[in-house]
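hiii so my PI (J.) wants the whole complex modelled not just the main chain, which honestly fair. so below is everything: two entries, each one labled with what it is. i double checked the lines twice but i was tired so who knows lol
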Amino acid sequence: MSTASDSTIQQRFRPRGGLSNYAVIIGLALVWVVFQLLSDNFLSSRNLSNLVLQIAVLGTLSVGMVMVLIIGEIDLSVGAIAGVAAGSMAVLVSILHYPAWVSIVAALVIGALIGLLHGTIITAIGIPSFIVTLAGLLIWEGVQLAIVGDGGQIGISNLFIQSIASTYVPIPLGWVFAALIWAGITVFVSVRRRRRMRSGLTALSVTAYVLTLAIVAVVVAGVTLLLNSYLGIPWVLVLLLVLVFGFTVVMSETPFGRHMYAIGGNREAARRSGIKVRTITVFVFVMISTIAAVAGIIEASREFSASNALGGGTLQLDAIAAAVIGGTSLFGGRGKIYHALLGALVVGSVENGLDLLGQPAAVKNVATGLILLLAISVDAISRRRRLARGAAS
Amino acid sequence: MQLLNQTAGGRAEQPGRLPALELKSVSKRYGNVAALTNVSLEVYPGEVVALVGDNGAGKSTLVKAIAGAHRIDSGEILVDGSPVTMASPNDASRLGIETVYQDLALCDNLDVTSNLYLGREARRRHSPFLDHEQMEQHAGQIISELAAHLPSLDSLVSSLSGGQRQAIAVSRAALWGSKVVVLDEPTAALGVAQTAMVYDLINRLRDRGLGVVVISHNMADVFAVADAIYVLRLGRNAGEFSPAEATPESVILAITGADSIKPKASEIR
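here's the output for the full assembly
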């Protein structure tokens, strides 16, 4: 019914996902408080700095996963792709003695080509991405084993590659970065607000505007202070934030990103609107595979080697779990890039906290699984509510 | 057939006016099945034409031909008097013809503005970035002109009622369709109040000078909004009526072809 009272009800309960965002942040805060109570060290700057290093790979993979989930697809092969990329880089730099940058670029190109292959098979033959990337998982794990060879791992002695995941931004430069991030967000928020006011559209009130900038300032300064009080901001965090920021701009400020949401929401409607569904799908798989290669490079840098176990285990499932826990829907069309960061923080915090408490891997897996189940239930229930609302009208 | 001549004569009395859309002897076959045979249709600017017929009468095929989704085998399609070829939905869009299908083709996960601009997003000058403000402003204009009952432009389509969703689909067609808007069964899934809202919407499209084609099963719809009624039966024109002069019964007779069925029925007993 389209009565006036209905409209006001809908406005009061805006289903924009705002609540679930807060739910994740509250959940994260809860996890942190509980672990701090159980173990004094959890909220120490040293441990939180470690946490950042631990979630770098997972967060990077999840950024790609969020995008694939938004277009209503899934990729089960990201861990194996990371392994192939890391292995290739290690072979190039350590055995064939190519320069570091050549090896890194080659690893990224290999990732992109794998994505191109996946995307092309998915769209041209019309096989669900679930199956294609499951086959990909097996194939690329095999390729990874072949590349790494009988030794089980290839050491990386190149200093530049080693430094990616193990160096920190110098303390003063860290503060410069923090100031730049705050300034960038301030410019973005201010320009948007001025444009909307000039166009006569609803814009942030002065209070909300000042409050937003104040909260951003506190968060940015707080994180910087915390990390600087240990060794500084890890360069991998800078890399991860650049990825999150860059893809956030793509998703919310370009027609390409808008079309990705449309494909996930209603593929047929997107096609009829002239959106190039296949091209975009292929491109998204190229993006996630390239991002997986980035994750592989980071992990190899962390381990100083590319092993045949790199990217294996629960990593790729954790990447899906992190995206969903962060608030991205498994059913397509709903999600934000920063969900990757939030979800990776939750998954990483639980694992880190249980490590501190000396719990075995079994407990960590069960805990992560339970949180995932909770997140998916929230996702499914809110989806059912939306559908019920549509059917009732 | 008398009625056909009468009304056709009546509408032709507007000298110098070209139909916004005209179909001349359009035929379409699917293999051995003749879906449309020599079908003709005229839609003038500022006029609502209802297209009625039983299931399988060829309404959907005709809509797809007008929307550019299917090529016609023979005959002519004219827009503003000049013949055009339509090989794809994009061709139809370019000619100012927009079609609202029964399923509305909306993205539930996007807000109203995004749906209105789906696939045709406005960009800031010299940049790859979306011009949110321009889109929201224009969307606000068209919505307030056509469908004032929406909660707000940034509400997600999933939160809207069936009538509101129909209104958004129609508004999108009106935003882009400069000449003709085709509505496929616009009231099929709607309640009484929402149906009235859609009638209102159709009248506003007419007032904007658009030619409107409404496909419907529902005689109440047809007589409430149409300026001319075309009946299709078995893929052929089976009569053209003026709602002012015809009765629903006479239109239903033309739809079912009751006259031609009677002798057969008596044969069977």
